[in-house]
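Box 3.1 A note on notation
Throughout this textbook, protein chains are presented in two layers. The first layer is the amino acid sequence; the second is a token string describing backbone geometry. Keep the layers aligned when reading.
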Amino acid sequence: MAVHVSSEILEHIGEAEAGRHARTRTYTCGACRTVSDATTEPGVAVLSVSPEMSQLSTVHERCVPPQVVRRCPSGSLGMSTSTDLVSRAVTIPAPGGNRPALLMAWEESVTLLVRSPSAGDVPISPVQRFLIDQGLHRFFALGKRPPESPGWLVRQGPADALQVDGPGHRQLEDGRMTAPAAWRSLVAEAGEVTLLVGQLDHGTLYANQPSWTAYGQALRGGRLVTGTVKATLL
């Protein structure tokens, strides 16, 4: 495996999440913030745990702290206050014809809500839970039209400008995204897009071509949430 996950961390996050994390190929070191290839610079999983949540990241072997599991007091862990949001116009192949989609994602820094080890539901981060509360959905079939999300609106244009509104407030103010003419034509015809929002690993996020397999796995794993939202072109 490219990233070593200790047995102690495995007990916290479960085999499925541990196996997926161990297969990471490209990562940003949680200590020195350097982007690295795990095949040439193997990584080590480290976990910070508080009563509210746990945060899983990957560090270089040279950056490993004395303990790979760090116990933190209540309220000491929180979500990052800033992140690099990547917006991408993608076209989803579907049996009834191609559908336009807007992917808004950031590099994965796995944050798990505390849950019972016997719980059957997939843990999701506080951000995804907030987005679900705002009307987006857990939905596992990438090739099907997801449920509608009232109150959301995507505005694309002029040129590469992008704005995204959620219910009652703006989610993205001054975004930038290259929108191919074919994608804009699909949006103009449909008047809607499939919105995909959440966390992706570094390699998937910055890949030259969309990875439908990785997107589908992220949906099923609770790292992406989605909805069919209204869209307008300017």
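Helices lie at 7-22, 126-133, 181-190, 202-205, 212-220. The chain has a mean pLDDT of 85.
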